[in-house]
Write a structure and sequence with these properties.
Layout lengths: L1 E5 L14 H11 L3 E5 L1 H8 L9 H15 L3 E4 L7 H10 L4 E6 L6 H11 L4 E4 L3 H4 L8 E4 L21 E4 L10 H12 L5 E2 L11 H9 L1 E6 L13 H7 L3 E5 L14 E3 L2 H12 L2 H18 L2 H12 L16
Parallel strand pairs: 1-2, 1-3, 3-4, 4-5, 5-6, 7-8, 7-9, 9-10, 10-11
Helix pairs in contact: 1-12, 2-3, 9-11
């Protein structure tokens, strides 16, 4: 297949990037032998704009996308987080090239109201929508014209290369990396754990307590030193919703603690992730595994194996392609539920 993937590619970060699910999707498509052309709306807008002012390049970016479609003639066009591209442009592309199938992938949480609005907006012009929250929460979109599917956060064999489950010489006992305090009270949990566990273990918290967030290689180095990590979402409770942090920790063999409310125990095998219900139970479970390193290694190893075998970028990419094109599913995807 020929695929045009429209998403922010972080070109102007010059290597100091976030771990990108969009990049994993591109790599997965290529590893499945599909031709992929990427288009980074924000970067194109900045490159084309007067004085590099991105907002001034919005119109030009939409024009360049149309030119790219004409040049590539894709079978599938995947539209990710690319707010500079208008629905009017996508409608024009559909009018000129009616055979192109369009899909929207959205990896942001539904508890942010503006993201719900963005999904509804995109669903007006695409054939399929993939969201990183589980199907029960997606029922709010059942009157939209597009088909809706759940997609997970995948690991990638070239990115999640660590296996800390096999190491006992790791200097950091517990890690939590963050960079956003919007729509969340998770800092209260981190403060509580600092107070309760500060003298018992080495707790590293980039992005909190005056520490700078870490990106790129700095983030990779932080993971490389770590036994256990906190998977704290900005809000908890949406079915099967987690930030990409879940896959990054699990794929690196780092034991993670995650809230029980999203019901990941209905997706993942037992003794992989450690679930908690409140701050006290989280504290107690951290202590439990801190004092039983063999148990930490065993659980983290099972989680890593499961993610790399069943929730990797190749399966993730092929699922999005097959569902978008309404092809028979070639694999028993563990996260698949009936779409609407």
């Amino acid at each position: 297949m020929r695929v045009l993937h429209v998403a922010y590619q972080q070109l102007r970060r010059y290597g100091k990037t976030r771990v990108s699910w969009a990049n994993k999707l591109t790599q997965g498509l290529i590893r499945n032998d599909h031709f992929v052309q990427v288009f980074s709306d924000r970067d194109v807008a900045a490159f084309e704009a007067f004085l590099g002012i991105r907002e001034l390049g919005k119109k030009k970016a939409n024009q360049r996308l149309i030119e790219t479609v004409e040049a590539v003639e894709p079978d599938l066009m995947i539209v990710g987080h690319c707010d500079l591209i208008t629905n009017e442009t996508l409608a024009l592309i559909r009018q000129r090239w009616p055979s192109i199938v369009m899909a929207h992938c959205n990896n942001d949480p539904l508890f942010v109201p503006s993201n719900v609005d963005r999904i509804r907006h995109r669903a007006e012009v695409v054939d399929a929508v993939f969201v990183s929250t589980g199907m029960p929460e997606l029922k709010q979109f059942e009157t939209s014209p597009a088909r809706f599917y759940h997609m997970p956060n995948p690991v990638d064999a070239s990115i999640e290369t660590l296996d800390n489950s096999q190491r006992t010489d790791l200097p950091v006992d517990l890690l939590f990396c963050s960079n956003s305090n919007d729509f969340t009270q998770r800092r209260d949990i981190v403060v509580y754990l600092k107070e309760q566990l500060g003298d018992e273990l080495n707790f590293n918290t980039p992005g909190s307590f005056g520490q700078s967030p870490v990106w790129g290689r700095d983030y990779e180095r932080a993971l490389a030193d770590t036994r256990m990590g906190l998977n704290l979402n900005r809000q908890e409770g949406d079915y099967w919703y987690s930030s990409a942090r879940m896959a990054q920790l699990a794929g690196s063999g780092i034991l993670q603690f995650t809230h029980s409310a999203p019901k990941f125990d209905e997706l993942l095998p037992a003794e992989t992730l450690v679930y908690f219900d409140d701050m006290e139970s989280l504290r107690d479970r951290i202590r439990e595994f801190h004092h039983d390193d063999a148990k930490r290694q065993a659980w983290a190893s099972r989680a890593r194996t499961f993610f790399h075998e069943h929730m990797n970028s190749k399966l993730y990419a092929q699922y999005i392609l097959e569902c978008s094109l309404e092809m028979p599913l070639s694999h028993d995807y563990v996260w698949h539920r009936e779409a609407f």
